[in-house]
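Good morning C.,

I know you're traveling, so I'll keep this short. The sequence:
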Amino acid sequence: MAEFETVTLRDPSSALTVTYVPGAGMVATSLSDGGAELLGQRRGLQAYVSNHKTMGIPILYPWANRLSSNGYGVDGAVVTLTPGTGGVRTDEHGVPIHGTLAAYPDWDVTTMLESQLTAELDFAARPALLATFPFPHLLTLDITLLDRTLTVKTTVTATTGSRVPMCFGFHPYLQLPGVPRANWNIETPAMRYQPVNAWGIPTGRIEDRPAASELLGDRFIDDGYDEVAPGSVFALSGGDRRIEVHFDQGFTAAQVFAPGDDDVVCFEPMAAPTDALRRGGYHEVQPGESATAQFRIKVA
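The tokens, ready to paste straight into the viewer:
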């Protein structure tokens, strides 16, 4: 296995630590509370690097979830995606999934302190990235760990005359060590449910869903939502532990995922709903401007 340099941030006020791997796509591989691991390890870092099998907290960029075909158009420009090249990967149905930055090696770390990490990626300087997302911009991740809270702030700065679509997201795999999955409780805010077809693509129907709190039990969940209000809170609790995911700003959509083959729950912050890069409905960063999206994971 290739050796990757890791960066571990420490919360000055508690035993909470978070570990990132800049050379493997700025993936978070651990969120540990005094030795109790709160992130699902799935198949591990090597499988993420080799086969893009997600784990920990990966960034899904420039789109989260799936696209309904191998291409999209923005402002009259048509982009064709070729699976297997330029970081494009597909799911079992052959549709592009989770963007192009899985395990991407060339992030530049600009700040590294005890409880703060900043890294950036300049798309304009990387033709291979522009081939699949032809909008020059600077992507910056600011990560802090303070007061038992991991804060992830993403800033997109449009560096030329092109507008930049905001369709990205994150995929935090959360777990409650020592508590049986059947006893996990999940809490979700009021939002709008988007049913999907057999390929996981929204059908266009919508259903309002009220806030809910329920035991996970033996259920499999893979549901997409939009109209997630700023400040919305999702939570996973069980035993004496509670993990909250706060959608502070910029994340107006969410995927709630609890697979049947692994004891993890994901509350995925998304800047736009599934397939938005093809069907529209996303925010654009105007030339010369910046836009920020932020979520926090609070360990109670």
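Safe travels,
E.
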